[in-house]
Amino acid sequence: MDSNVGLAVQCLGILFLSLLAIFMRSSFKSVPLKFWTLAWSALSVALLILFVAFHVSARPALLYAIYFLGHYIFGLVFITGCRREVERSNRKLLEARDNELLVRMDPLTEALNRHAFYSLLRGPEGGVQLTTSGSVAIIDIDNLKPINDTWGHSAGDKAIRVVARSMRSLIRADDMLFRWGGDEFLVLMFNLSEEETSRRMKKLNGILDENCRKWPQMPVTVTISHGVAGFDSLTQLGHAIEVADQAMYARRNEVRGTLFSEEQAISKR
Predict the structure, then answer these.
(1) Using CB atoms within 10 A of its CB, is residue 120 exposed (0-12), middle (13-18) or buried (19+)?
(2) From residue 196, how far is each of 10, 134, 137, 141, 200 by CA, in Å?
(3) CA distances (Å), origin 238, targets 77, 88, 223, 265
(4) What is the pLDDT of residues 109-146, one digit of tens each?
């Protein structure tokens, strides 16, 4: 094929791509497409100038310089468009990740919520194998209602946050803390025995007492009741939660019964 014919075909092809990019810009508003349109246009102009340089004897050096400049502009603008596209894709990925975190996270405590828990149970894609063993703990705030009734719901929110903060000092990086309900939390402690989990949970009221004293916004000490149960796989987790929940209720009723007896004794004096 003659070099002029080949160059003409190449010019027409690049010109067609430029026109296609211009047409697409009218339908799609995209910053990267804007740069790519400019890049293809610069390349098509450069090839046209080269075609002219082959047939015009006057000042061919200037035409060749303009041709190489057009190639440089094409490469620079095309790479800029690719970089903008990568930035846009990364931004969308970050936004999707942040939205997913918002869906799975309790905004008050920044603990995981029930949606995150059920996503974990749907399969090993959550990052935890079905054969994972460990312990589950259910934590209930004993005096949240009196705090809300006496000090207001802002104090109740602070009580919930101080419990979540205190829990994080007991669990490990791989454990998972869930806001289970209004005044309840659930903790999954993987590859940890029920006995060790119980030992840790028994420290929680002491840590709460210390944190409430350090936190000037807390008008009263927060206390909790807890229940613990072990599991050998995630398929047994539902039963383990029921056992831990029953143990928590038994402990909570015992605590409230003690408080009620103390109140009666004080009222009789």
Answers:
(1) buried
(2) 74, 10, 11, 21, 6
(3) 57, 42, 26, 41
(4) 989 998 888 887 775 544 455 668 899 999 999 888 88
Q: What is the pLDDT of residues 69-83, one digit of tens each?
A: 777 787 787 788 878
CA distance 225 to 143: 10
Q: Where residue 86 falls among pLDDT bands split at 50, 70, 90?
A: confident
Q: Strand pairing partners for 105?
A: 112
Q: Are 74 and 42 in contact (CB under 8 A)?
A: yes
- How far apart CA 115 and CA 103 sit, in angstroms, is 7
Residue 29 backbone dihedrals phi, psi, to 5 degrees: -90, 100
The distance from CA 56 to its chain's CA centroid, rounded to whole angstroms, is: 62
Supply the pTM of this predicted model: 0.61
Within 10 Å of residue 213's Cβ, how many Cβ atoms? 10
% of the chain with per-residue pLDDT over 70: 73
How many CB atoms are located within 10 Å of the residue 143 CB?
19
CA Rg value for the chain: 34
The answer to whether residues 240 and 229 touch, using CB atoms and an 8 Å cutoff, is yes
Least confident piece of the model among 197-201, 203-207, 262-266? 262-266
What tokens does 141 get? Answer: 């705030």
Which residue in 148, 145, 162, 155 sits closest to 109, CA to CA? Answer: 162
**Sheet of 134-141: strands edge to edge?**
176-179, 184-190, 134-141, 224-231
Distance CA 122, CA 74 (A): 49
